[in-house]
Amino acid sequence: MMIRTALRMNQYLVKVRDFKDAECINRRLAVRPAHFVGAKEFKEKNVLVNGGAIINGEGAMCGSFLLLNLESPDKVMELIKNDVYSTSKVWDLDTVEISQVKIADL
Question: What residue intervals traverse the membrane (predicted)?
């Protein structure tokens, strides 16, 4: 007999800012297609609920937000660190904010 234990999933809101150097937007745009491929895979696995760009006062992308279903803040940080936006020096990991949330069932 096989016994399965379900992992408890929590919901998290993540905000992370981009680096502020002038070339950051070019790095972002260069790896954006690969970032979207990964995001779609996480969406299909119900890890990613939703996400998108944070926009500054001039209408330019300056960071990202994500709503995630994961076990812990450590798992959230692992996902963020392995994203192509992190490995390509788009996201400034010193600015990551992780908040546990409860998404309304509407």
Answer: none
pTM: 0.87
Q: Encode 38-62: b = buried (16+ Cβ within 10 Å), e = exposed.
A: bbeebeeeebbbebeeeeeeeeebb
Query: φ and ψ at 12, to 5 degrees?
Result: -135, 140
Q: Is residue 103 scored above 90 in pLDDT?
A: no
Number of domains the chain is built from: 1
Nearest to 99 by CA among 7, 11, 9: 11
Cβ 18 vs Cβ 28: under 8 Å: yes
Burial class (CB in 10 A: 0-12, 13-18, 19+), 101: middle
Q: Range of 75's domain?
A: 10-101
The end-to-end CA distance of the chain, in Å, is 38
